[in-house]
Amino acid sequence: MDQVMKDWLQESVGKTYGNFIDGRWQESASKKTYPVFNPGKREQVLGYFPASTAEDVEQAVNAAHKAFAAWSKVPGPDRAAILLRFADLLEKYAEEIAYMLSAEQGKVLAESRGEVLRAAKEARFAAGEAFRIEGKTLPSERADVWNAYVRYPIGVVAAIAPWNFPVVTPVRKIAPALAYGCTVVFKPASVTPWTSVRLIELLAEAGVPQGVVNLVIGSGSRVGDPLVKHPLVRGISFTGSSNLGISIHELAAKRLAKTQLELGGKNPAIVFDYDDAEEVAKQIVNAAFTCSGQRCTSISRVIVLKDKAKELTEAIVSEMRKIKVGPAWDSSATMGPLVSEEQLTSVMQYIELGQKEGARLLYGGEMLTHGEYADGYYLSPTFFDQVKPEMSIAREEIFGPVLTLLAVEDEGEALRVANNVAYGLAASIFTKDLSQAYRAVERVESGMVHVNHGTASQAHMPFGGTKQSGYGAFSIGSTNIEFFTDMKVVYFQYEK
Ligand code: NAP
Ligand code: MG
């Protein structure tokens, strides 16, 4: 039992928070707040957060627009210095931020600590990018003319984040925005605004000037929508569900605002061959059940050749038996609750649907309601085999701790099945045959592909998807320059 976290929570919950606009904490124009609860202990109110409206969005966008003139002129290395201080602060307060993160999102403490440290790494990478906003020169067709193209920041960026990674996703948007000279209005998911407040405090402490980063907390319809529609917002970096991403893209397209969309997934692990079934099972189970399966890059389909299916299935089940579901303050727990009742209900519906469709429920699938579990949204990790490609559980994103297994005849069928979904975010391929690995990497339709390990990304590599899983510049790596800056081509005659 992590008593320190429990005690910390006891002392820290129940406060009222505001929006951060133009360098000032303030209540919403609506004067209203709403409570945010702990998904591991649903009666516990973590805090009261502003139920903001379009009026708050208007103020925040205007503040960001005003601040842009000066911020975009701050030299890149100076902007980087602020981000490096911010990364140091994330590390300094990592434990406390991890408590908040686990309390509002539900993930176990080890995962929360990892997320905070990952955010620090990404902030440092972004800081480095502020030194590398590269242009190019080319020889001219004419004598005494200098040809070049340069990059400049686009202006105010809207950052809209989901609830599954409430620390790293905002940092993944805000840090590069600042590195490239943009200003930001940030809207967190309404169920996870607590860590966002802390992130903004630390950005201010690191030296981000007034108006450069603004936080508006509230619902998608009352805050997200007016933010997306605001004419002064030049780019929208959105992470969330595919349907919403598409409708945001439609709205943005009407005024040719840019979008960077990180959307859903139905990620396969294609298993052809291995030396050690247990090791493959470990990789798959870890990638499937981290964050209770509420990761856009979670493995949700195992596509395995028939001759390996039995052995791999057994190895996966025995790996799943090691998962211990529990609240974040239970240090022996390895999987937390789901984020909300809505999410729990939706995942339970898929588990019922899978059984109705004729898949075999091999492991888990129950809501946990005894003892301490009764206080939160706990579900046992779930595994279906005998799954067919046309079943809903094999095609739709469940976004919970549910893994499916589909057995196939050969490599061709494996890749056809893998690609037979609307999504294309991440994929894993397990094989010992180098040629087969190359063929599969080439043919699998996904933005990211991992050979012989699970779908874990790194803090300096481009991150994104294809098909319904994403659009626009990949986030994280140096690809961000395509979203946060525009190009200007310069012809410069220096002699007549
Ligand atoms: P969501 O329902 O799509 O919401 C995402 C964000 O959009 C939230 O802040 C939400 O606010 C806001 N929003 C809602 N309606 C809006 C509107 N009309 N205009 C503008 N913003 C609006 O996603 P979620 O349920 O939070 O997260 C789960 C989804 O995110 C999954 O599909 C998952 O795959 C995807 N995801 C993708 C990635 C990736 O990198 N590819 C990473 C993480 C998650 P409210 O919270 O107030 O509804
Ligand atoms: Mg949602």
Describe the structure.
This protein has 496 residues and is α/β, with parallel strands linked by helices. The protein has two domains: 281 residues, Aldehyde Dehydrogenase, Chain A, domain 1 (3-Layer(aba) Sandwich), CATH 3.40.605; 192 residues, 3-Layer(aba) Sandwich (Aldehyde Dehydrogenase, Chain A, domain 2). It is built from 16 helices and 23 strands. Strand 8, helix 6 and strand 9 form a beta-alpha-beta unit. It starts with a helix and ends with a strand. The model has no long low-confidence stretch (mean pLDDT 97). The protein binds NADP nicotinamide-adenine-dinucleotide phosphate (NAP) and magnesium ion. The site of NADP nicotinamide-adenine-dinucleotide phosphate has 29 residues, from helix 8 and helix 9.
Q: Count the helices. How many?
A: 16
- CATH fourth-tier homologous superfamily of the largest domain: Aldehyde Dehydrogenase, Chain A, domain 1
**Rounded radius of gyration (Å):** 23 Å
Portion in helices: 40-55%
CATH class of the largest domain: Alpha Beta
Largest sheet: 7 strands, mixed
Summing up helix and strand content along with how strands pair, one would put the structural category as: alpha/beta
